[in-house]
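Technical annex B. To support the medicinal chemistry partners, we prepared a structural model of the target in complex with zinc ion, based solely on the information shown next.
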Amino acid sequence: MVEFIWPWNTFHMVLALLYWFFVIPEVETLKTLSWGWGLYLFIANATGIFVLYGGIELFYYVQRKQGRRFKYNAKFPSDHPSSVFWFKSQNFDNFLRSFFFGIPVWTLVEVFMLWCFANGYHVFGWIDWQNNWLWLVVLTLFVPAIHEIHFFCIHWLIHRPFLYKHVHSVHHNSMNPSPWSSLSMHPVEHLLFFGEVIWHLLIPSNPIVMLFNMHVVGYGAVNGHIGFEKLEVTEKTAVNSHAYAHYLHHKYFEVNYGADGLVPLDKWFGLWHDGTKEADERMKARFRLKKQKLNS
Ligand SMILES: [Zn+2]
Ligand SMILES: [Zn+2]
């Protein structure tokens, strides 16, 4: 329970509030689409991502301040150039894809959502905190579950052969993911990924809850790609990364389609891998069966 709230979801909520009170323009401005506030939101998102992802990259991958302690894969991507990446560099490739495609798509979806809220293009309208606080608190608590279910579904979908080949393989070029891999995707995947917040136009919601959801998706994408089980912050404190399930997804592909296992969809569908020998055997048996079916 503590892990559910602290530190990651608290971080996403605090950031959503900071956005709402200090970054997002006045409602009157949001009513009209314009490049001005769109570009301004792009800069805000890009700066936020640069600081969060870049900070983790700097401390744990460039300065390597905790060496290989708690690292899943002993290799650091920058030590191993590969021709699957632009300029043979995982970092450079992933960074460019995030800033030229990922954050623009994120911002477009965000602009669209805020414009819809401001104009009342919403099934239930914009509901306020004073009169609906209990529902909005409950909805906020459900956001990580919404994310888990939405991500599982779109992720399973883009693993179907055609979409995998043309869309999702871009993300999987990083078999040993690092922070910049988080938003390194094909733009179609970005759209499906950030499109998750569209749910907030269909259920009674509020822009702050929508922003929180947006941040769970955008800033939260880093969790699966940290590459370390724990990040040592001081000598005595370490933060759990929640990266292992998704790290194994990058390693084995057809396991762990969910983000964090909060809603155990992978377990229910027999796709869960927790790194144990038993899980490995189960996965291999599943792959053998698939191969037999393909050959018969
Ligand atoms: Zn990934
Ligand atoms: Zn995948």
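Notes passed to the chemistry partners:
The two ends are 47 Å apart (CA to CA).
The chain is about 60% helix and 0% strand.
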